[in-house]
């Protein structure tokens, strides 16, 4: 089953930050697509449920140097 998780990302100040966060999320096995909106500070991640947890996404964002909080 696929699901979409939204995260609030803190600490992005330029467009390159968006690319860093998208790349960090997209490389997780089981992630299908990751898009980040700088203006709204939101990441939307489509992934396989059961393969990728919200915690996995948050760890990846934090390892890339940003803070993340689960939205839905
Ligand atoms: Mo831009 Mo973001 O110079 O960590 S890449 S602020």
TrEMBL record:
Highest taxon listed in the record's lineage: Bacteria
Subcellular location: Cell membrane; Endomembrane system
Domain HMA stretches: 3-69
Family: Belongs to the cation transport ATPase (P-type) (TC 3.A.3) family. Type IB subfamily.
Protein name per Swiss-Prot or TrEMBL: Heavy metal translocating P-type ATPase
Organism: Marinobacter iranensis
Full protein stretch here: 83 to 154 of 857
